[in-house]
Amino acid sequence: MQNPAKVRGIFSSIAARYDLANHLLSGGLDFFWRARSVRMVARWKPGAVLDLATGSGDLALALQKSLPRAQVVGADFCLPMLQVAARKGLRPLVAADGTQLPFAADSFDAVTVAFGLRNMESWPDALREMSRVLRPGGHLLLLDFSMPPPPFAALYRFYLHRVLPVFAGLITGQRAGYEYLGESIEAFPSGEAMCRLMSENNFHNTQALPLAAGIVTIYTAQKPPVPFVS
Q1: Each residue of 108-119: pLDDT tens digit?
Q2: pTM, whole model, 2 decimals?
Q3: Is residue 153 part of a domain?
Q4: Structural domains of the chain, count
Q5: Which of 72, 228, 54, 67 lies closest to 136 in space, CA to CA?
Q6: Fewer CB near the terminus (10 Å): N or C of the chain?
């Protein structure tokens, strides 16, 4: 759970080079992670998708390409990031805080969040908002960094705290933002802990799919259907 003003400031400062940094620092794996996520969402055949914390819009654009008949809405609370997404041609875009979404209940068939829930002020509040705007039986997909199991955990911590901030600082000129990244990844629930958090906040059928030796995980869940009334 994060300070919204701090997070908005960090992403505003790196917006212009956010995509370049992501591609270089992930070794291009971010393309694979998004493609895997899009294939999973496509299997649900949603008619309306909210890509929350859309950032520079890469996941939303990939969803639009894969689901040409679906309405895909990108939302983020950082204006400079939305401006980057707009320059790429993503429409519609909405300025929105993930803990107070400006959408009616039961508006979307799917909600996607790539590397965004971790940066929100309250993870439970954000999950409950995602559930609220989903239609009964709708799907949630979260893509985010996670801590890998031993023996990779120690190496990953060294990379997060000693290597990544240096290289990212050279690319973006904002080393502090990537020092925050490592701290936020360590504090964020991984694996079963994230599945439990989703279950505690109006979701069921939770699943976790670790990728890249566990440094990234795709989580999926559903909003329960409307209870049958006899």
Answers
A1: 999 999 999 999
A2: 0.93
A3: no
A4: 1
A5: 228
A6: C
